[in-house]
C-alpha cells in the first residue's frame, strides 16, 4: 500500500514559512496517493521560479529545466513515452510570461500534460516584480508608475483556445485543490489548473484574507463543453472569484494524433534501422 | 575529361528539376557527377542557376568555366564570357528578345514548338533537357528512363505529355553535336548533404526530430518527415527554435535519440538550451546549417561563418563536439558519430553544414555500403531494475578512465531519474554546496573534455605530402581541396579537417604538424571574412599560416579560382 511517506524525499523546501507552495505540494501528494499513482510512474517537469522547485521536494522522475520552457520539454517527454504521467509545476511568470508562446501552442496541440500554475500574481524568486497576472496599477520597485499592462486572464485565454480542461483553485482551499488536481490528472488531454497562491513575502495585497473574502467554489451548473457559458464565467474576477472547473472537452490528444505511436511508446521502439533502402 | 553545364532562369521555371534531371541522366550513364545550386530567396522570378559537372575524372567541386549554357532568362546570357571557346549556349530568341547573334548560340523557339504541339509552356525545360541530350549524342532511351523515374507514380497523361516534349527536343535540328568520351563504369548514385545528414540520423536511430523551418536546414527536416512513418520517427514543427530544442531535450531525457536542426538565426535562439543540454547532461544532436549572416543575412547563399560561434555558443563551461562534414558521405558518418558521442558522453553535438553542402549533389559507386556505429548507451527496463541506487550525475574522478554512469530511462524501473538546470547533486537535485559544485564541474567539464579528445579523428591528407604548398581547410571545402590536390599542373598538399571541436590532440596530429613545419607556404582556405578556422587552428597548434584565401560573397570556392589564387601567391 502506498503511503504519504512514499512521496516524501526528505528535502526541506527552500520556501518562506507561510508560503502557499507548501499547501500545493501537500495537496498534490494527497492527490497522487488517492489515485494510487506511484513515484516512478510520473515525470514532473518545471521551469524556474519558487514554484518550479516543487519537483525537488517530492519523489518522482523529473526534469527541472529553463525559465519558461517546461512545456516543450514536457511535450518531448510525453511524445517519447506517453505511458508516463507528465505533470508540470510553474509560476505565473514562468508560464504566462516567459513561456507564453509555448502555452499558446500547447493549447493547440493538446498534449496529455497537466499544467499546474502557482499564480501568486508576482515574481517570487526575483523578489517582487509584477507578473502577467498582477493587477493594473500595482506599484513595485521595478514598476515605479505601477504595472501598466492589463493582467492576463488565463482562464478566459485557455477557454478561447479550446484548452481541453480549464480549472481554478486556491492554495488556501486544500480539499478543493486536491480534488481539482485529481480531476486534471484523470483528464485525457492538456489540463490547465490556475492555482491562486499566497506569496507572504511579496504580495501583500492578494493575501489569504483578501482571497477568503472573495473566493467561492462553484459546481458548473452548465454543460462543461459549453464554451460561451464558460467564457462568461471566466470574466468574474473582482469581488467574487469562482473556483472550480470552467470548461472541458474530449478532443484527441496530440499523442493520439501521431500514427507512429499509436500502438507502442516511441521509447520502446528505440532501435537502429536498416537504411539500405535510403541509398539509391 | 569533364564537362560543365549551367542552366539558368527565374525561380518557378523548373531550373532545379531540370538540373536534377541532368544529374540523374549523367549518373545513369556512369559518369561522375557534381552539381551545385545558386538561388535567390524568392518563390517566383529573380535569377537562379544550377550547374552540373560530369565526366570520367573525379569531380567534387564547382568549376568556373562552362561548356554549355542553357538559359531561360536574359541575365543568363551574361555568363557567355564564362563559356569555353568551343562552348555552346542555348536560348529562345523569341522569349529573350535577343537580336544579336553569335555562333556559340543555338536559338531554339521552345514556346513556339510547344504551342505547335499543343503542349503547355511548362514543358519548356523537358524540351531543353532532350535538346541538350541530343547535342551530347546521348541516346533518347536514357532520357525516357529519367523522365519515367522522375514522374513515377504520376498519372498516365502527364507522363505521355512529358515524353512528347522529349521528342520535340530530340527532333529539333541542332547542327552542332558533341561526342562525349564513353564512361567506363556503371551507373552511379547521387547524394546531397540533405540526404547525407538525413540518412545518418535515421540510421543512428533518431526517433524524434523537432525543428522550426529555416533555410538551408529545412531540407533535412523535410527529408526525415518524408521517412518518418516507415522508420517510426516523430517529427514535430515546433512554434519556435526555443521550443524545438527543448522538445528534443525532453524526448532525449525520456529515452529516445533526438535531434533538431536550424541555421544561424535559429541557433542563436537555441543557445540557452544548448547550455541546458550541457548542464543536465542530456544528449542532443543539432544540425547547424550555415548561411551568411549576421542576422537574417543572405538566406539562400553559403558561408562558413559560424564555426567559432558553434564552438563557443551557450553560457558556462561545458563540452560539446562540433563536426563539419565535407561531403554527403561524411554527412552520414559524422551525423552518426555525433549521435554516438552525444549519447556516450551525455553532451550536445553539433553537425555544422552549409548551403553549399546541403544543396550539392555528389555521385557515388552504386554498391555503396554504409557501416554505422550504433551502440545503445542507455539503461533500459531490466538493466535498470538491477541497478542499485541510481545516481544520474555520479561524481567521477577526472584523472581516471572510468565510463560515465549510463543514462536511465525514467519509468523503466522503480528507481527515479532526475535532473536539473540548476547546479545539482549526484541525484540531480538542486544544491548550493560549493564542494558539490566543484566536483560536478570536474565531472561535467574536465572528465568529458579529456576523454572526448581521444575520440576525435585526425585531419585527412590529400595530394603530395612532401609538397611545399600546403592548402588547409574544413567542412564543405573538402571538394575543392581534393581536386586541387589531384591537379596535374602543380604539386599541392591539401589537408582537410572535419572534426573541429575539440581539435585532435597536438601529440596525435603529428603528420599534419610535420607537413606544416616543413612548408613555408601554408594557405588557409575558408568561406568567411574573419578567418575563423585559421584562428582556431593557430591558437590550438601554435603556428601561423603564411597565407589565406577567404571568400565571403555568399558563393562557394570553385576549382579554377582557387588554382588561380595559388598561382597568384606563388
Ligand atoms: C531566462 C531567464 N530569465 C530570467 C530568469 C530569472 N527568473 C528566475 S525566476 C523568475 C520569475 C519567477 O516568477 P514566477 O514564474 O511567477 O515564479 P514564482 O517565483 O513567483 O513562483 C525570473 C524572472 C531566469 N532564471 N531565466
Ligand atoms: S517569495 Fe513568495 S512565493 Fe516565494 S517562497 Fe516566499 S512566499 Fe513563497
Automatic annotation (TrEMBL), chain A:
Residues 51-195 form the Thiamine pyrophosphate enzyme TPP-binding domain. GO terms for biological process: cellular respiration; small molecule metabolic process. It is an enzyme of class 1 (oxidoreductase). CDD domains: TPP_OGFOR (cd03375). One of its GO terms (molecular function) is thiamine pyrophosphate binding. Residues 199-262 form the Pyruvate ferredoxin oxidoreductase beta subunit C-terminal domain. Its cofactor is Mg(2+); [4Fe-4S] cluster; thiamine diphosphate. Pfam families: PFO_beta_C (PF12367), TPP_enzyme_C (PF02775). Keywords: Iron, Iron-sulfur, Magnesium, Metal-binding, Oxidoreductase, Pyruvate, Thiamine pyrophosphate. Its EC number is 1.2.7.3. The keyword Ribosomal protein does not apply. PANTHER family: 2-OXOGLUTARATE OXIDOREDUCTASE SUBUNIT KORB, 2-OXOGLUTARATE OXIDOREDUCTASE SUBUNIT KORB-RELATED. This is Pyruvate ferredoxin/flavodoxin oxidoreductase, beta subunit. It comes from Thermodesulfobium narugense DSM 14796.
TrEMBL record, chain B:
Residues 200-442 form the Pyruvate flavodoxin/ferredoxin oxidoreductase pyrimidine binding domain. Keywords: Oxidoreductase. The keyword Transcription does not apply. This is 2-oxoacid:acceptor oxidoreductase, alpha subunit. Residues 11-171 form the Pyruvate/ketoisovalerate oxidoreductase catalytic domain. The keyword Oxidoreductase applies. One of its GO terms (molecular function) is 2-oxoglutarate synthase activity. One of its GO terms (biological process) is response to oxidative stress. Its EC number is 1.2.7.3.
